[in-house]
């Protein structure tokens, strides 16, 4: 990815920030919803069923959209999605820091390099989804959904690597 593409992605992300600035941090209710889903998936797996953390993507944002005033408007949906995204991002960062403690130094260097490339990919991919919708209001929801899906999948992936590393 060249500098111009990175700069464009950064500008697009900054432009999107005011749309989410009012309420893009997860709440206690969001945290509870996500923890409940995570525990349910874990419990089902312990019972021999095959479930993944990806099944929890959208759990808190769905409740937010249904229960928050304005949650079903374009901006409300985007705000709810970004709130959940902030939860997944915190999990991703916790897992990353924990992996730093359990991986061999050369393994962590590989992970760090991959993480940097993943961030560039996420930003470019979500910028595409934002731009795809042109000036339509759907672009903020498409961007937020891309950020949530991509971040949650990466957080779940790092969680799996951490689980395997601790065996």
From TrEMBL:
Domain Lysozyme inhibitor LprI-like N-terminal: 64-158
Signal peptide segment: 1-21
InterPro entries, sorted: LprI-like_N
Record key words, sorted: Signal
Protein's recorded name: Lysozyme inhibitor LprI-like N-terminal domain-containing protein
Species assigned in the record: Maritalea myrionectae
């Amino acid at each position: 990815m060249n500098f111009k593409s990175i700069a464009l992605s950064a500008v697009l992300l900054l432009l999107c920030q005011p749309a989410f600035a009012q309420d893009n941090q997860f709440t206690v209710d969001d945290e509870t919803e996500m923890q409940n889903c995570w525990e349910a998936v874990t419990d089902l797996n312990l019972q021999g069923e095959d479930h993944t953390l990806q099944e929890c993507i959208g759990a808190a944002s769905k409740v937010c959209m249904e229960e928050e005033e304005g949650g079903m408007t374009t901006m409300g949906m985007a705000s709810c999605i970004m709130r959940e995204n902030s939860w997944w991002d915190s999990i991703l960062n916790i897992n990353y820091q924990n992996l730093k403690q359990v991986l061999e130094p050369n393994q962590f260097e590989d992970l760090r390099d991959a993480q940097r490339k993943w961030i560039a990919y996420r930003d470019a991919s979500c910028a595409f989804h934002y731009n795809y919708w042109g000036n339509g209001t759907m672009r903020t929801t498409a961007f937020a959904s891309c950020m949530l899906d991509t971040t949650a999948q990466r957080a779940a992936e790092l969680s799996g690597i951490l689980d395997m590393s601790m065996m």
